[in-house]
Amino acid sequence: MKIYNTLSKRKEDFIPLEEGKVKMYVCGPTVYNLIHIGNARPMIVFDTVRRYMEYKGLEVNFVSNFTDVDDKIIKKAVEEGVEAAVISERYIAECKKDMAAMNVRPATTHPKATEEICGMLEMIGTLIEKGHAYAAPDGTVYFRTRNFAEYGKLSHKNLDDLQGGNRSLLVSGEDQKEDALDFVLWKPKKEGEPYWESPWCNGRPGWHIECSVMSKKYLGDKIDIHAGGEDLVFPHHENEIAQSEAANGKEFAKYWMHNAFLNIDNKKMSKSAGNFFTVRDISEKYDLQVLRFFMLSAHYRSPLNFSAELMEAAQNGYDRIVNSVSNLNYLLENVTSDTISETETALLKEAEGFTAKFEEAMDDDFNTADAIAAIFELVKFVNSNTDGEKSAVFLKALKDQIVKLSDICGLLVEKKTEDLDVDIEELIAARQAARKEKNFARADEIRDELLRKGIILEDTREGVKWKRV
RNA sequence: GGCGCCAUAGCCAAGUGGUAAGGCAAAGGUCUGCAACACCUCUAUCACCAGUUCAAAUCUGGUUGGCGCCUCCA
Predict the structure, then answer these.
(1) pTM (2 d.p.)
(2) Could you report the predicted ipTM of this complex, rounded to two decimals?
(3) Is the CB of A384 under 7 A from strand B?
């Protein structure tokens, strides 16, 4: 299994620190609103990485945080006149609903920043002791960036380029820094903000320290994979490395994975540009499985464009897989043979090739676009090689194969079987009778009536199939 | 100003040295009372220029056109 490592800028063989186990940390959302479809990309991508690793027999300890103390949360709390925790708890709950609908599995642990303040105070203390951080007179604690020799190794920047960046860095408190590149570990509270006591001042943590601390607490000083959106490479992840490695004296993470951005109609999504969609918005029009399928249709390191047309195409593509499984289920319900023939055995062997192709794609830095192509090839193979004459063993094996590969991608392609109401069953039977008498007007009338009730009929060679709109 | 990425059919998207996967859409056909599903057929020399090589979408240099990070941001 190869993974592209941002640190080395190349694909590397994935070798877990501990055989058979993976320690993985993914930077989670700041919970001040419903999550947007940009937030959804890393969730879906890294959930898929996790699922594939588990499929390969690895035990994945997957940690993803909720940042629940932040300026935007506080601002929203002030606007609504409630405690910050009311806002963060509300949106954590909403986020979990969206994740469930996208079939993103809950992390092994979902730590919250506000519950890890103790660990942050401890790490900041260690950094000060070791000379990597200092407290300014007003109680702000800064990280001494130039004291960490490897600073810039992830984003491949050097400090002098950064400093020469000609931008005005003089925001408030800037003058008390030893160096313009030093970043905040702890900052004093402002009036009305939530705060915690500390040796330096009553205040709250800077943005970067939380991930260093949560990763250390739940996974250990050194982990296998640290992941997130590409915008986090600098400064967030660069700063995490500086803090963790300076404090722990060990390499922080072996592999760094970053997903590319999602654009809307070829532009960066932003509220001001008016092209901003929450996952909830999309769920009103589409099953979020379609969103997931869409996200996986491109490689995670390629920028992906989002538009209404592309979602339609994704809907149709996803339906093709669902249809194939639904056909297999229909055949299985009406199966007549349960002994597998020699031809069938040979076909199953051939079908294994698609699983091999799928794995080859996923082993190559999680090439989901290629992996999904393998699923489509399997779908075509299934559609071309199954009919009412085939045995139950054969059909079941093929169905399991499609469902399994789709499941690795987190795609649910098997609709739950449900029983129809008796009156609907009777209408379908009545239509069949009408068709037999060649009374097609009556047959079509019944079909329209069922459509109004949300049932779509399809007359296949093997009989009448139905599905929900 | 510094660092970096991308450019493959109408659309989306794999392919990083051996002669272009897959999906969507469109068209024609088979099946079917019709529709739907499915199946078959059909669609590209890979932005442009030069070079390396027996061989390049794939390597090198250049041109053009997009984009990202350097600031809260997935």
Answers:
(1) 0.94
(2) 0.93
(3) yes
